[in-house]
Amino acid sequence: MSRVASVGDLELLRETLRSRRDAKRSREPWIAVCAGTGCLALGAKKVIDAFRGELRRRGLGTEVVLKETGCPGFCEKGPIVVVYPEGVHYIKVDPADVPEIVEETIVKGRLIDRLLYVDPVTGGRDVHEEEIPFYKHQTRVLINKNIKIDPKNIDDYISEGGYSALSRALSSMTPQEVVDEVKSSGLRGRGGGGFPTGLKWESARKAEGSPKYVIVNCDEGDPGAFMDRALMEGNPHSVLEGLIIGAYAIGSVEGFIYVRAEYPLAVENARVSISQAREYGLLGEDILGSGFNFDVRLHRGAGAFVSGESTALMNAIEGKVGEPKPKYVHTSERGLWSRPSLLNNVETWANIPLIINMGADWFSSIGTERSKGTKIFSLVGKVNNTGLVEVPMGMTLREIIFDIGGGIPGGKRVKGVQTGGPSGGIIPEGHLDTPVDFDELTRLGSMMGSGSIIVLDEDTCAVDLARYFVDFLCDESCGKCVPCREGLRQMRDILSDIVAGRGKGEDLEVLREIAHLMKAASLCALGRTAANPVLSTIRYFKDEYLAHIEDQRCPALVCEGLISYFIRPDLCIACGICERNCPEGAISEAEVGKGEDTFMVIDQSRCSRCGICFHVCPSKVMAVARTSGRSAPQQLP
Amino acid sequence: MDAFYQEKVDEIIGRYQGQEGFLIQLLLDLQGELHWIPREVISHLSERLAVPKSQIYRIASFYKAINLTPVGRHMIQVCMGTACQVRGAQKVLDYAASKLDIGPEETTPDLAFSLRKVNCLGCCSMGPVMTVDGEYHGGVTLEGTEKVLKDLR
User: Which CATH number fits domain A161-364: 3.40.50.10170, 3.30.200.20, 3.40.50.11540, 3.40.50.720?
Assistant: First the structure.
């Protein structure tokens, strides 16, 4: 690699890369295999190895390009393989399918029907990404390039137009003009709070003190959210380009990319992108001949949810324990090492090159009155098409879940959605027509958070879910301030009692009181929002709380302490799987008379209600039954 | 101190010469190489870096990715993120715990297995998710868990 010393050099490089690429692609097909963590978990590495072996065996190793790309979002159907130039989109590809793909699709140009997406409504087969409902209803401006880019190769990003926003900013915009553009775009922070990004930039630009720092927050701790992982893994240069533009805008010479320890591939790809950008001179001194100097360091998180809070994250970068500090002064004025520091989330940074290239007007034409642009959501839980979806702000939850997500599996009823992670809340089915933006979700007692949408069906217990979040936050609270540390512990104790059938009449009132206190008195956002899951479930699912408290009954049949298990003699085939798996030794064969069919019984006095028998009973048999609110029927033969 | 530890520690310290705030990164590197951080390593670090032991312990005990006790040869992590939770992660965790006869965050006495809860690995689409020695398994069932554990024995 040689240094790209000027804007002209960059354009020349882009032209060379494009013509080389296009010349090759006009002759030969090329293959993209998603190598994001999701597809890798489903065996994409083996698919990639199989392609490599098969292409070599056929002597096509140098002609047909095989790319290990970023995540296009359709994780449910992984591993995903796309054959270009046609753009044939294959799903659930197994290594055994690879020789056939090479023979039929690559060599002969034919489709393999069984690997195409089948539309559940029409029954037809969709060949291209654009036809598949999951993609069709999205507006993909941030994650659309992931499937075409090898994230470990900067040339791929440059030939797709990468770093043109940086060259535009450096060559034809003043730092103030960059800030103004971001301000008028209406972009709001994608990490949780939705603070106007432009205002943050403005205040960091105006702040006195030197050096100034810019920081990427990729400590995506909200369980259920993984859009930042997909961007950092799949298109790291788009984040880096945004960061360099931000540094130019506020006058920073040093930046940090903070990636959580649980994302090893994101750490790796961030590291590679930094070193490649440095080799090209897109980081370092005199970037693109503009006289602007800037460099970036990578900081790995070490596993602490609270460290995603901005002041805590800055403490961690300083090498200290990642606990929050009181924010008497904004971090944009006094942040890292008490210097002005501009911290934005991964998705926020990735929006910057788009705003600079396409203009603030284009950006603000997408979305709602007060929430502009697109937002990537992770659509997960009890929904058919799980994955990452990028939609304009203002699309309704119902459209996201049913048009894109394909509805609820098993014909079950949707109970609600959980948004905003542990700081968010649960929105019931009746509000699914709400347009999703920052303000609407807050109005419903939840929040946007980083953008997780966890779909819940009738098998989810609202009380148990609230207990789960409080339990999660109890572990993750740093313990520095009393309202958060003790408030969470008290809430956990009360909720644990309720799900175990020991709830008391005054519990709901006490929970509300604690919630109010935590909101008013906690040091950071973790504590101030920690009660949201509890408050929103009390608001929308009060009858479920009352069923637990007054009737010792869990309507969703989830809370172990309130469920009794028994085996239906008419269905049981006495295979003994439950007996072998019961950790308490509570299951044995019933004594039956001669010639009668035998079956298993559960000794209720020894049963710990773990439910393993229910889950291991073969799906063809399903002889283990559950009941709640009353004891199991007597089962003596 | 063991010569092997000494050499490793000194080599890793060398990587961060002159950088501010490197202590967490250094501990993560050590964690990656040694899988846990023994007491004598902390003493040695404290001397070499002129940082009080208490400060190193404060950091090492705050972060989940750093182990102060030995871990098993096989590391089983069960993701407890919300998406996995609503698809039955608790059952998977309970089942693995009962099969290994240890609780979460514990190691078997023969140092063969460690079992961990982990907060969201970001592959929420295929929950419940479990990692075994760093390899991801999606859509985990109780049967699948039993098979994975049996294969490692």
Answer: 3.40.50.11540
